[in-house]
């Protein structure tokens, strides 16, 4: 019962913080950007908790379980992406925007805002849906291990709806004002749980010798598993996402100063390496402790429930839930901000009061939760489709955002062409399983992100060069 008790206490505390912080929110800026007053310490906590999600605790853990030490290259994409973010932060903040779509419209016109909003909301609601699915899966396993449910009783629907509504209510109460505050706690909880679990897992595995004995030869060294094409397919989606991720940019826009934003990004690099490294090493050790898992991505959860001491397992379960919640609420907030700021306020209710914008933001959060819950009831294969949302967003948004900040020669026509052709290419590639064709033809499966980003970049540059003479290029492009 202990893991269940710890999780219930955590969830109750989460809603309590939302109620408490809601008293401090009086308008859109407070809800969306926490009044633009976050300190570097708070920023680092919320950035780390936001970026470390189910992709790390389940996706990266699955890679580490299956391929061993070569998976330690996975955090490289985050480090390189954050390095580029350091160059982007001053330029994004200089625009004084609420959302990235504000910046895209200022540079490329209203169509860019509309396409950017469609891409963001579509991708983010899908991402939220599998965060909810992951949270409900964790809670179901905890209930099962606690023998709370009678034999044969299925609680999937009730648990999924319950956790979805709880996360939605908590996010809608105070927005980033509460999310940033609890993300700091989530980050500490996450680090504590994982840091304790790692050495205990390796001890159970028999130390270094036991772990190596459980791995095949090519899984015992960092190099030697991924080909060049495979490495691109594994690293490029998250690299593109982190540069254009509205969640991270929202945090940087919420910083009290440019210096605070840059410092938090710098500290995010070692923080990401630490957390991702612990997750990967725990999963590698978990392969020796649990060698025949049906679902390798659940290795950390299964270690918590089946192998680690009860108190440590309870703490680790709460840590996993904290990872999921901090990611889900962030994507809900970014989707809500885009719906309210980029669609409703921009095209429907330009003269909306601050109180009306706050109400609309809270309503839109709950609407997005409902849509995410509907998507979460799809088949088990939906998780793979959900991960594709990272690719669509990275291909559709990141090249255009970089052009808006760093290339004055980019034109509105080039930006629109890039967004349409890039995402279209990725969808066609995925829908026709062309990665299987490259595997047969070249011996390596090419993920949709590779042709998608190539075509998006070519379209951006080519159409901009052709239309540059007739386009009005604004002076605020960086």
Q: Care to give the gist of this entry?
A:
With 478 residues, the chain is mainly α. The protein has helices at 2-22, 28-33, 40-51, 54-67, 76-94, 100-108, 110-145, 156-174, 176-204, 207-213, 228-244, 246-253, 258-289, 299-307, 310-348, 354-376, 382-406, 412-431, 434-442, 449-467.
What does it look like?
The chain is mostly helical. The protein has one domain: Sodium/glucose cotransporter (Up-down Bundle), CATH 1.20.1730. The chain is 78% helix and 0% strand. The chain is built from 20 helices and no strands. It has helices at 2-22, 28-33, 40-51, 54-67, 76-94, 100-108, 110-145, 156-174, 176-204, 207-213, 228-244, 246-253, 258-289, 299-307, 310-348, 354-376, 382-406, 412-431, 434-442, 449-467. Helix 8 runs antiparallel to helix 16. The longest helix has 39 residues, at 310-348. The protein is globular and about 70 Å long.
**Runs with pLDDT <50, length 5+?**
473-478
Number of domains: 1
Overall 3D form: globular
CATH architectural label? Up-down Bundle
Report the major sheet: none
Looking at this protein, list some descriptive labels.
478 residues; mainly alpha; Sodium/glucose cotransporter; 20 helices; 78% helix; globular; disordered C terminus
List the helices and strands and how they pair.
Elements: H1 2-22, H2 28-33, H3 40-51, H4 54-67, H5 76-94, H6 100-108, H7 110-145, H8 156-174, H9 176-204, H10 207-213, H11 228-244, H12 246-253, H13 258-289, H14 299-307, H15 310-348, H16 354-376, H17 382-406, H18 412-431, H19 434-442, H20 449-467
Helix pairs in contact: 1-8, 1-9, 1-15, 3-9, 3-12, 3-13, 3-15, 4-13, 5-11, 5-13, 6-7, 7-8, 7-15, 7-16, 7-17, 7-18, 8-9, 8-15, 8-16, 9-13, 9-15, 10-13, 11-17, 13-14, 14-15, 15-16, 17-18, 17-20, 18-20
């Amino acid at each position: 019962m202990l893991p269940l008790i710890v999780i219930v206490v955590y969830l109750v505390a989460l809603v309590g913080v939302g109620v408490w912080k809601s008293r401090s929110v009086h308008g859109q800026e407070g809800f969306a950007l926490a009044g633009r007053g976050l300190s570097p310490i708070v920023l680092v906590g919320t950035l780390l908790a936001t970026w470390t999600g189910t992709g790390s605790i389940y996706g990266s853990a699955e890679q580490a379980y299956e391929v061993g030490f070569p998976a330690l290259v996975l955090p490289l994409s985050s480090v390189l992406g954050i390095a580029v973010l350091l160059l982007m932060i001053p330029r994004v903040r200089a625009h004084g925007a609420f959302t990235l779509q504000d910046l895209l419209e200022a540079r490329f016109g209203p169509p860019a805002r509309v396409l950017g909003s469609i891409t963001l909301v579509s991708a983010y609601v899908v991402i939220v849906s599998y965060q909810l699915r992951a949270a409900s899966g964790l809670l179901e396993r905890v209930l099962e291990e606690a023998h709370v449910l009678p034999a044969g009783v299925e609680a999937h629907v009730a648990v999924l709806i319950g956790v979805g509504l709880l996360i939605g209510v908590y996010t809608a109460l105070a927005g980033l004002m509460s999310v940033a505050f609890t993300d700091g706690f989530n980050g500490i909880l996450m680090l504590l749980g994982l840091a304790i679990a790692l050495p205990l897992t390796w001890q159970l595995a028999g130390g270094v010798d036991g772990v190596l004995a459980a791995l095949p030869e090519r899984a015992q060294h960092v190099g030697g598993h991924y080909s060049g094409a495979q490495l691109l397919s594994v690293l490029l989606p998250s690299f593109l996402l982190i540069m254009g991720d509205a969640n991270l940019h929202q945090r940087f826009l919420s910083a009290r100063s440019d210096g605070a934003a840059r410092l938090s990004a710098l500290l995010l690099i070692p923080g990401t390496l630490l957390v991702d490294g612990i997750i990967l090493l725990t999963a590698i050790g978990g392969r020796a402790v649990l060698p025949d898992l049906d679902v390798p991505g659940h290795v950390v959860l299964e270690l918590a429930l089946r192998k680690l001491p009860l108190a440590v397992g309870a703490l680790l379960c709460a840590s996993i839930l904290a990872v999921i919640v901090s990611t889900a609420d962030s994507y809900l907030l970014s989707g809500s901000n885009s719906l309210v700021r980029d669609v409703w306020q921009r095209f429907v209710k330009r003269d909306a009061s601050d109180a009306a914008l706050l109400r609309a933001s809270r309503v839109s959060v709950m609407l997005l939760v409902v849509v995410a819950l509907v998507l979460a009831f799809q088949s088990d294969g939906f998780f793979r489709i959900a991960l594709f949302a990272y690719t669509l967003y990275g291909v559709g948004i990141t090249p255009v955002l970089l052009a808006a900040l760093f290339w004055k020669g980019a034109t509105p026509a080039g930006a629109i062409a890039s967004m349409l052709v890039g995402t279209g290419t990725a969808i066609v590639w995925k829908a026709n399983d062309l990665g299987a064709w490259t595997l047969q033809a070249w011996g390596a499966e090419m993920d949709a992100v590779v042709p998608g980003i190539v075509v998006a970049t070519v379209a951006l540059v080519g159409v901009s060069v052709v239309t540059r003479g007739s386009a009005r290029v604004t002076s605020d492009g960086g």
